[in-house]
Write a structure and sequence with these properties.
- The protein is an alpha/beta fold.
- It is 43% helix and 22% strand.
- Strands 2-1-4-3-5 form a five-stranded parallel sheet.
- The longest helix has 19 residues.
- The radius of gyration is 15 Å and the shape is globular.
């Protein structure tokens, strides 16, 4: 079974969001093996320091054959059908894990950015990390239902 991993800093701060996350993870895992690796948040005033520190933590989690997708507002914009087509193609043909990254408040370090295979944007807007994590899970579940021709269940 194909493995997809989401790597992001920190835990969800609200109990209600953790419950929504759990529900989407159950739904997604019906189709693929999906996991979330939560990195320790770096608390520091200097953004450059945070970018480098978190970049090193992200890099430690990556493997050579991973297809790495940064979820970034500067990335390629896709609608749900395009995201489903992208996901389906990577699930079917890429030999390694499919790894999605959500950066911290300071963004991604240049060293880590060199490792990206793709950048995808879900919107021109900036979202709170906790909310975006749920949006990403919902869109991943939606894409998997599209790929498999199943009716979308909320």
């Amino acid at each position: 079974m194909k493995h997809i991993e989401l790597i992001c800093p920190g835990e969800l701060k609200f109990k209600e969001l953790r419950e929504i996350e759990k529900k989407y993870l159950q739904n997604i895992n019906y189709y693929v093996k999906f996991s979330i690796k939560k990195l320790k948040e770096t608390k520091h005033k200097e953004e450059a320091f945070v970018r480098e520190k978190e970049g090193a933590m992200f890099a430690e989690e990556l493997r050579e054959k991973d297809f790495v997708v940064a979820l970034d507002k500067e990335g390629k914009k896709m609608d749900s059908l395009q995201f489903a087509a992208f996901l389906g193609q990577k699930i079917s043909y890429h030999p390694g894990r499919l790894v999605f990254l959500i950066g911290g408040f300071a963004g991604f370090s240049p060293a880590l950015a060199a490792r990206f295979n793709q950048k995808i944007s879900f919107s021109e807007m900036t979202f709170a990390h906790d909310l975006f994590r749920i949006v990403f899970l919902e869109q991943t579940y939606r894409a998997l239902t599209i790929i498999h021709g199943h009716k979308y269940h909320r």
